[in-house]
Amino acid sequence: MPEGHHVVVVGGGFGGLQLVHDLKGAPVRVTLIDRRNHHLFQPLLYQVATTVLATSEIAWPIRQLYRDRPEVTTLLGEVKGVDTSTKTVALANGLVVSYDTLVLATGATHAYFGHDEWAPVAPGLKTLEDATTIRRRVLLAFEQAELEDDPARRDALLTFTVIGAGPTGVELAGIIAEMAHRTLPAEFRRIDTRRARIVLVEAGPRILPAFTEELSAYARRELERLGVEVRTGGPVTDCTAAGVMIGDEFVASRTLVWAAGVQASPAAEWLAIEADRAGRALVDEELTAPGHPDVFVIGDTASVKQADGTPVPGIAPAAKQQGAFVARMIRARLEGRPAPGAFRYRHQGSLATIGKRAAIIDFGRIKLKGALAWWIWGVAHIYFLIGTRSRFAVAWSWLWTHLSGQHSARLITQKEILREEASRLQG
Amino acid sequence: MPEGHHVVVVGGGFGGLQLVHDLKGAPVRVTLIDRRNHHLFQPLLYQVATTVLATSEIAWPIRQLYRDRPEVTTLLGEVKGVDTSTKTVALANGLVVSYDTLVLATGATHAYFGHDEWAPVAPGLKTLEDATTIRRRVLLAFEQAELEDDPARRDALLTFTVIGAGPTGVELAGIIAEMAHRTLPAEFRRIDTRRARIVLVEAGPRILPAFTEELSAYARRELERLGVEVRTGGPVTDCTAAGVMIGDEFVASRTLVWAAGVQASPAAEWLAIEADRAGRALVDEELTAPGHPDVFVIGDTASVKQADGTPVPGIAPAAKQQGAFVARMIRARLEGRPAPGAFRYRHQGSLATIGKRAAIIDFGRIKLKGALAWWIWGVAHIYFLIGTRSRFAVAWSWLWTHLSGQHSARLITQKEILREEASRLQG
């Protein structure tokens, strides 16, 4: 390994990759540790869950990205703890890595608000496995319904409930509705997939609360046009294999998807510093851990207050801006220059899609909805994918889906699980 | 369901699909039962195992193929038995399906010659899950080697053993060698992946015994040029997590792949008819089960002797020819025409590839080897894929691999398994 200041980055998400990218040419050596071998383009993960895209189209081996950066070492490993007194990171396999500067960018997972027992029946969507689990369950529900003679059980199999109406929930519900109403009807003989119910549940008063009321109302109308039942203002009070309790009404539904809470990874625990309710480490305005100026925490596992008191949102652009900021901080320190000051988040806009033809965009002064917004959304996402190959592959998959109406990744995999789930669905 | 003669087909492999295809327009209704929701293009499965292709590029939802055939019903289900007296098929979920004509096309799986205890350490390659298992193990071995400080353990992690040198074994060994020597070296900092050993073990006297001695010798030279150690004439006598015993020599190798034996699915058991040593049902020259003229058995689960006494090989073109033959038989019977006579297999040629630049082809009189053979192999395989989308996707993946030297599907998925396997590899 080359000599020099050693920057250890834990987490190869948007924040970690931006940081490593921006350290190019700096007098440092970098070790990037992730417990997965791939970077995942999470904004399109819902399209893997709904059979539009294949897993390899939105995930890239991390080490491949640094082929031409000999100063960057990639390690596949799970961090178990940080010792700030010896300035080391301990991996689960026993390896101990020393750092001069440490950056924790370990992200977040979904949370069930104290109801972890809901996890097996209502999977969330954070990893490729989550996406293939949801894909398998949605496809299997239609398959089991085709085999089912009992009408009540068939209806429960054909009822899909998405819990939480942020962008991910809206996107999932929209595509499942399109599958049921447009892609699948011609393929089943014993059931009419157009009779499937897709229920989107939101505890708050409206869907997509991060958008204006007008855009939110438009999104709701578009979802309803696709056949989604939107139910706002009633929280989910129970999830079981048989269905979901919304307030005190039970909806028989064999397929539940969780798109509600978020829980940060344990960076705050490792550092023994204060965290907010979602477990995010409270960092200071330079994104360093209080009392540890050589430890940065960025992305979904950090809680950063801005000058105006509003929190930085847990989205990809925010993580990238934090990664870029930390790279500037490290360079400034190594060069003995003054620090670039406090981190300031610049909001570039909010986007959400509803099915395959409509989207809403809020750029602040400019607000867009409908087909044009969908095209801007699509081009923006292709632009942000990594590498020529993926851009072509995703563009081709989308083009194909539009031209043919067919989804290209409708695979049920993992046979052992398939058997278990078939018996779960049969109740 | 429409009225008419009911043909039940079990298995959506090459034979089953050809049969359903050729029954188009016949006065029958068809029920196609498979325990998977997808047809798999097995000849390219090794490319999923070696990260060149993505799973969705070589697998298609079976029911999607019959969107425009309302007389075809597709059921996802596992057959548990056949009752020829009541002419019914029983599924695992309790459903019982009546048939007028039954066609069993349920294929084969790999066999360990009485050593089923080798299965966990030496996975075979028959399903998409098998392919992603092998992919995960190969990629994880390099990752673990990068973390390993002990030289002996690192060498064992960097030794890959493929058991069985038929086309699949040769193809696997060739691509793993290319990965180690060409794709991966620039990406690792603590190991030199070019020092990896790829060992191809064949109990018989030469590799690819279905080809001529000259083509077989050429393939061996090409494999050795890629860095594969070819070891013929010594059977594998034990497989463990630590390595493989070849004759009485132990080779420390943490990654084993099984490409040797084949075991037919239990069609013969269901029918209580005679089977050969590999479990294949012995059928008569019209491909019907002895004593059951309305039950056909085709493809890898049937043992068909030809007029000259040689067996029909267990390859895709043979299964397709049998599917087409059975479709002609069913049509002839329904129209009261004489049967088309005995099934006769027409061998169209044998193909095998060695890495990404060379192949061998035996068309009988014409024999080819080298780059031209590779191109013919590639074009033929793209031609036989199902659907425009897949043809473009696979052509694009191959083109990309050739131009960039990069593989596009290098994903390690299934995290829980990942943890188990990481500890298995650490020994």
What does this structure look like?
2 copies of one chain form a homodimer. With 427 residues, chain A is α/β, with parallel strands linked by helices. The first copy, chain A, has 2 domains: 5-35 and 77-107 and 265-334, FAD/NAD(P)-binding domain; 115-259 and 367-426, FAD/NAD(P)-binding domain (3-Layer(bba) Sandwich), CATH 3.50.50.100. The first copy, chain A, is built from 11 helices and 25 strands. Chain A has helices spanning 14-22, 45-49, 128-147, 151-157, 167-183, 213-225, 267-271, 316-334, 371-384, 388-404, 415-426; strands spanning 5-10, 28-34, 38-40, 59-61, 72-76, 79-83, 88-91, 96-98, 101-104, 108-111, 159-163, 197-202, 228-232, 236-239, 243-246, 249-252, 255-258, 261-264, 281-282, 288-289, 292-297, 302-303, 350-354, 358-362, 367-370. In chain A, the strands form 8 sheets. A 6-stranded mixed beta sheet of chain A has the order 5-2-1-9-21-20, covered by helices on one side. A 4-stranded parallel beta sheet of chain A has the order 13-12-11-17. In chain A, strands 6-7-8 form a 3-stranded antiparallel beta sheet, with no helix packed on it. In chain A, helix 3 (128-147) packs across helix 11 (415-426). At the A-B interface, strand 5, helix 3, helix 10 and helix 11 of A face strand 5, helix 3, helix 10 and helix 11 of B. Chains A, B: It comes from Sinorhizobium kostiense. Chains A, B: Residues 6-323 form the FAD/NAD(P)-binding domain. Chains A, B: InterPro entries: FAD/NAD-bd_sf, FAD/NAD-binding_dom, NDH-2, NDH2-like_C. Chains A, B: Belongs to the NADH dehydrogenase family. Chains A, B: It is an enzyme of class 1 (oxidoreductase).
